[in-house]
User: Fold this.
Amino acid sequence: MADSTECRTTTEIASQPHTWRRAAALVAQVRDVLPRDGERVAVVGCGTSWFMAMAYARLREAGGQGETDAFAASEFPVGRRYDRVLAITRSGTTSEVLDLLSRLGGTVPTVALTADPRTPVMKAADSVVVLDFADEESVVQTRFATSVLALLRGHLESAGALPAGTRPLSRAVQDAERAVAAPLDPRLCDAEQFTFLGAGWTYGLALEAGLKMREAAGAWTEAYPAMEYRHGPISIAAPGRVTWMFGTAPQGLADEVARAGGTFAGAETAGGSDPMADLILAQRLAVALARTRGLDPDRPRNLTRSVILDSHA
Assistant:
């Protein structure tokens, strides 16, 4: 099944190799406001932005840069000490993020990463990094989220702090170029259920893949840390159902899924794709499934581009 080219979401997904390059080029301009080696850092966001925060937190800490926690903005433990707080918000208007930045004002340096320089977050945070080249018209967030992660990943790489086994960002961009053009596996397009798995930093990507499928296509999806999958969730593996691994799979897991009749997909092997490029495939699949089900991926049910609570209206 081919992707439709008639929706904004598809266009934005396909632009990611370009926006990742732009993000990499931005690193040198903003490094002074990004976390420094040895700082204790918290990263916050909502929805997709929270999942990118999780991925970055694991990358930074595994790279030896310092303790790094990720929180949904509404669940941030105010009172816990951090040297810097990063807030990811595409719209710059998300109520929970703005509330948190207001509460933290004057107590800890705050940095916001946003797509829109005309929004309240520009004044709410001490410093702001604007990725307007990655902004989106679609409600479903794709390229902004991955471009933020590319920026933060590029910053780690520039400091020599990428964890062992993590590809250089330039290689991830090359993999992304292939991912936007590769045909989708028919087994995935015909599946009734998807379980996404990750380990370390790729667990955030697994959560994000599941969210994209639910948002765009209303699909039945779940996400787990890879080693936890055997502790119950594997019970739903069956013919017509997919287990999709971001990164290298635990030994023997693919065989267990096959014995249950399920399809095992996405696992990185020697010469395989970067996990961020695999996320592009999941984004494309979400659009394809939405089209098959008669849904409009640009206008997902029950969603708006930003969650703004009544008190902020």
Notes: The chain is about 40% helix and 15% strand.
